[in-house]
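Appendix B. Raw example, untouched.
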Amino acid sequence: MIRIAVGVLAGVSLALAQNQIIPPVEVKIGEGNLDTTIRLLILLTILALAPSILIMTTSFIRIVVVLSVLRQALGIPQIPPNQVIIALALFLTFFIMKPVFEEINANALVPYTKEEITDREFLTRVSAALKKFMASQTRKDTVDVFLETAKLSEEERSAIKKPEDIPLSVLIPAFMVSELTTAFEIVFLLYIPFLIVDIVVASILISMGIIMIPPQLISLPFKIMLFVLASGWELVVLSLVRSYM
């Protein structure tokens, strides 16, 4: 899995450079392949940018936002700790992205390690697989907004016939914004039952004339009990996984 992830990060880094998100560097390429020194430089760059690339091109954003805000809905913003939330989001990300990684491994990484394809072809295949995944989760309106903002020429716009044709400089920010939007929609639905419990508890306390005790203090155990009895963690995780299928 680590070998596949490194291959994915390599492809994304090269694709970002090709789309001029990273300032272009003039290098000499012989017979379609990069020089060994340049490959080493790219590998070191990948290791430095790995967390950012993981966040930008995978399902990590949606998962970590939903899990983080879920703690707020329960009324325990520090439990589970951030390390647990990030670890769970990371493993769920690899679980969801497994088909994409397997496709990249079979179509790009394995042929590349066997020297059956060039660096350029490896880049094309990796970026195509990632673009296919990101485009399937990106809202069309969001893509249109970023295409308009990018001020592409008519020729560049007409050349976009399928997800693989969208520049990464447009698709990545559109994908991230779409992921945030979807995450907030899920969070809204998660908040409703907990909000109802808070309102009911607050109404009962007011009717009993108890105004010195914060309603959240009384409703917290009820919300935790409701969440546990409903198998809340399983439902949330299952919903996140299914939202990508």
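End of appendix B.
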